[in-house]
Write a structure and sequence with these properties.
It is a single chain. Helix content is 46%, strand content 22%. With 273 residues, the chain is α+β, with helices and mostly antiparallel strands. It folds into two domains: 141 residues, Jelly Rolls (Sandwich), CATH 2.60.120; 110 residues, Homeodomain-like (Arc Repressor Mutant, subunit A). The strands form three sheets. It has a five-stranded antiparallel beta sheet with strand order 1-8-3-6-10, with helices on one face. The protein has a four-stranded antiparallel beta sheet with strand order 2-7-4-5, with no helix packed on it. The chain has a two-stranded antiparallel ribbon with strand order 9-11. Helix 5 crosses helix 6 and helix 8 crosses helix 9. The radius of gyration is 21 Å and the shape is globular.
Length: 273
């Protein structure tokens, strides 16, 4: 099962080339990446297929040629809607890559489609990456500087103050405490008041903060955790559906069945087939 701590620590050790590049290849519809956040700027350039990304809970429909920009400290996740989904992932350690840009605290447009300049630059980078001719890292670095400059001049939607940026990070970090508590206690009854006390804030403020960041109420999120745990248990085919419901914290079997069908699109008994 996946750790529900949303923070993902990325370490890019190459000071001369502080950019990590990889390819993601998904071969069935479903999860592309689990919800998480990090300080680094991250690009997903769709090479093939289609799906949906969620950046701070906002859905983004993507297709071949789309560029998804994950700004610093944004919760994001991705889902493939096609059998074959391929993406070039580029992660920038901006403090090392460009201190001028790192100090800007800008927020880029989350989704860019059909920009010939961006497509040209990223396909050029992709070719350099695959061919690895002499000086390919220098060539890619030059393309990246050109790309970042182009984005700064054409696709900035917001500039955060230092105070806003610090507040954003603090709220995300605080929420990790709550998510870890849910992970450890999901089988028990958990109240909003209980979770709010972990952060030493009012219940009203907590519910607002949680929904602002997670895009759903605490109860819906807790039930989502329980459903995922139940699915995992049922896959083992060692306990019955009613036993799985009780183990993960659902006291009402009928409610469990309704919630499971709503979340997965089929009844829990189908996992046994």
């Amino acid at each position: 099962m996946h750790d529900l701590n949303l923070y993902e620590k990325k370490i890019i050790k190459d000071d001369e080339f502080p950019v990590q590049m990889l390819e993601n290849h998904i071969r069935r519809p479903g999860t592309y990446c689990q919800p998480h956040w990090h300080e680094q700027l991250e690009f997903h350039y769709i090479l093939n297929g289609g799906g949906i990304f969620y950046c701070n809970q906002k859905p983004l429909l993507v297709e071949k040629g789309s560029l998804v920009i994950i700004n610093s400290n944004e919760i994001h996740k991705g889902v493939s809607s096609t059998k074959n989904f391929d993406a070039l992932v580029i992660i920038f350690e901006m403090d090392a890559f460009s201190k001028e840009f790192a100090n800007c605290n800008v927020v880029f447009q989350s989704l860019i489609k059909s920009d010939p300049k961006i497509n040209e630059l990223l396909m050029s980078v992709y070719e350099e990456k695959n061919e690895k001719n002499t000086g390919y890292k220098l060539a890619m670095k030059g393309k990246f500087y050109e790309l970042i400059s182009y984005l700064l001049r054409n696709y900035v939607v917001q500039s955060l103050s230092d105070r806003e940026n610090v507040s954003r990070i603090r709220n995300l970090s605080r929420l990790n405490t709550v998510l870890q508590y849910i992970q450890e206690n999901y089988t028990e009854t958990i109240t909003n008041r209980e979770l709010a006390d972990l952060l030493h804030i009012s219940e009203y403020r907590f519910c607002h903060l949680f929904k602002e960041i997670m895009g759903q109420s605490p109860l819906n999120y807790i039930n989502e955790v329980r459903l995922k745990k139940a699915y995992h248990l049922l896959e083992q085919k060692e306990i019955t559906v009613s036993e799985a419901a009780l183990v993960v914290g659902f006291q009402d079997y009928n409610n469990f069945g309704r919630q499971f069908r709503k979340y997965y699109g089929f009844p829990p008994t189908k996992v046994w087939e």
